[in-house]
Inverse folding.
């Protein structure tokens, strides 16, 4: 069980462990691993990210270095997914701190690590942290129309459609999915 200061600041003791993965803070030495998927047009197609050059990935990584805790509403907790077998960072999981026990979820894995159950292993552990340790009761995922892989993924993890949360009146529409434990 997490102590009160860590719970207040959303500052989990890292790494979190699963059978095949560590969820941990980002490090500058992760740049090569990140550049591989930040620069992959197909991986970022449905993410609110551009296709990044190595330099752009470095800039993005500098921000992620600080996001191992989320003390204030609106902050993102951003954890690297390290594959234990290779020591490589193969993706990331994110949780944006909302109000009243609400959070938004994000996830991405490298293309050659899809279809292995690694993304669900990482997200299940993040969901466990959120609900058991951080007091989160409602988790929302915002999925770009057409991202069927992500819709199926969210449904397998117990998310259900939440049409009230859909965003359809902008240039960047999203479909809302929600998982509630309250
Ligand atoms: C969305 C995304 C994370 C899903 O990744 P994924 O690898 O398909 O997800 P999972 O970890 O659940 O893997 C499930 C697949 O692995 C298979 N699998 C193999 N071993 C498995 C295991 N031990 N446990 C679970 N599933 C396993 C499953 O059968 C399933 O295959 P299927 O899709 O052919 O049915 C991935 O496509 C991605 O990163 N996309 C790009 C970024 C993105 O769009 N993010 C979402 C923004 S909203």
């Amino acid at each position: 069980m997490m102590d009160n200061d860590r719970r207040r600041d959303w500052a989990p003791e890292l790494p979190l462990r699963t059978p095949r993965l560590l969820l941990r803070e980002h490090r500058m030495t992760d740049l090569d691993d990140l550049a591989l998927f930040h620069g992959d047009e197909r991986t970022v197609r449905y993410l609110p990210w551009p296709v990044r050059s190595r330099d752009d990935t470095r800039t993005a990584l500098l921000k992620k270095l600080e996001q191992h805790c989320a003390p204030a509403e609106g902050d993102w907790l951003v954890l690297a997914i390290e594959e234990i077998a290779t020591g490589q960072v193969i993706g990331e999981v994110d949780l944006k701190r909302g109000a009243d026990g609400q959070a938004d979820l994000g996830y991405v894995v490298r293309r050659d690590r899809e279809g292995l159950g690694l993304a669900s292993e990482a997200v299940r552990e993040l969901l466990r942290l959120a609900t058991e340790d951080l007091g989160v009761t409602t988790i929302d995922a915002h999925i770009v129309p057409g991202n069927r892989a992500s819709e199926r993924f969210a449904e397998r993890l117990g998310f259900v459609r939440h049409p009230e949360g859909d965003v359809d009146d902008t240039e960047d529409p999203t479909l809302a999915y929600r998982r509630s434990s309250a």
User: Anything to note?
Assistant: The pocket of coenzyme A is lined by residues 43, 46-47, 107-109, 114-120, 141, 143, 147, 149-150, 153, 156 (CB under 6 Å). Residues 4-180 form a domain with the Aminopeptidase fold (CATH 3.40.630.30). The radius of gyration is 16 Å.
